[in-house]
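Supplementary Data S3. Sequence and structure tokens for construct A.
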Amino acid sequence: MHTCALYKEIIMKTGVSSYSYSKAVKKGTIEYLDVIEKTAELGFDAIEFSNLPVKDHDGRVEFAKTVKKRVADAGLEFANFATPADMLKGSDGNLKAEIERVKKEVLVAKALGVDKMRHDATFGFNSGERSARSFDYYLPRIAEGCREITEFASNLGIKTMVENHGRYSQDSLRIEALVNEVDHDNFGVLLDVGNFICVDEDPVEAVGRLISYAFHVHFKDFHVKNGSTFNPGLGWFYTRYGTYLRGAIIGHGDLPLSQCMNIVKSYGYEGTLSIEFEGLEEPLFAIETGLSNLKRLISSVEF
């Protein structure tokens, strides 16, 4: 008997971030809340929302209730709520104020009915700023904020996460150090398998390092070009060390997604895998194609 047959069947659900539709929403191709029904129509199991388009807290809570009902009526699960935060520069650099602001976002998450919420750790300082210091230098402060927020959220049945994004908080070693510094079972990682390449880190090694901390997983792809070649132009951006990247439909880019899927499945992850598309293609086409490829990726490895 092949050893793989000894493993239990891993069942994972597919989801999509509302952020993936953002270009279509801005162009008027689809209305903001209509992405819910479109997500169900395309055949996803779940949806997650990246922020909400209402500024005041009471309005956000009421809007969240509307979103919750439409998601339920569409027959979808709610995978996650993502909200901005910055433990260094948020709320004009006042950590306590930023903590209290993000706690209010936990209440929004509660109104949405989610059991997981991603908030940012920090986007750090630009290298030219006098206040610039290493991630390790600021780690205790960042962890203090994350810990107080997750302690508050745990009482409401909501797990909190940070994502590997934003350059300053993108490396897997930095994210692992933050999780260990926070040292709370309610705090983990939204693991984005694509984002590591933005800081020139090997996605396979990084996914292997962080999968044990993952509460939720994003699948994303990028086109990659050597930084010593001609600048490709519109839609491309630099990594930390000068490689060219452009967002891609899942399966159309250059990242080792199959190997990353092997790691995710071999670890036994049974949560949702969410598409986060940020390429140049028409979003609805890109999301539908990405879902087809994601499903094939999931089924291509059996443990």
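Construct B, processed identically:
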Amino acid sequence: MATVAQLTRLGLNTYEAKAYLALLRRDSSTAAQAARLANVPRQRIYDVLASLVEKGLASTRPGQVAKYVAVAPELALERLVSDQREQLADLERQTAALIEELSPAFHAGQEQDNPLEYIEVLRDRRAINERFEELQAGIKREILVFTKPPFARPPQENVEGMEVARTHTARTVYEISVLDDPAVAEGVRRFMDAGTEARFVERLPLKLVIIDESIVMFGMDDPVANSDAVTIVVVEHPALAVTLKLAFEATWSRGLTFEQARRLAGVT
């Protein structure tokens, strides 16, 4: 089997390699004999032998029943190696041409400087959730959040966020309306149990996430799309993050506790 593997690396398929080795063991063989010796299916042996002849690894002896003869290994294998050299040389020529074709586009791309490359706009809910998970996973110190409906991912489903709350500073200002949904309210409680500090206000201007005073993720109302549409902007800009943190702190300072918000919302 090792010899078969070596022959396949030189360009033969498994059946061809087995058939050539079978032909080597006899002065000549019929197709039926070669199939039996090589353990190649009878319905495939004629194509296999014809391929060996075409590649210069076998020849035929005419007669009432055609017989096949192996070409000496020193000749046969040199032909295979020669074919490999030609294919490699052809591949090198094609690669050189492809490099020449692609290089101008690469160098042109290196010269592009997008002044807004630190801004992402996300509208697909799945993409929003995946990006938020990436940001949560990269938190070093703190996460500050404004939370209000509609949700790309409701609090009770954000298991990763609860893990972050256990190991980092996490503060969230919720819009009191989140308490209208019992499932969401329970999710908020679980976040608090995990370590998130929470405050509640009657209205929030937008959804907002501030991470480590360097990355901001916020929602923007779409005046054209329906009310359930979610458009999220991610900006990696420390100056903007620090500025929005001032707004967060001002909102936090006037927020209600969980129990105060429950009473105001009439939740028992």
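The longest strand covers residues 169-175. The two ends are 77 Å apart (CA to CA).
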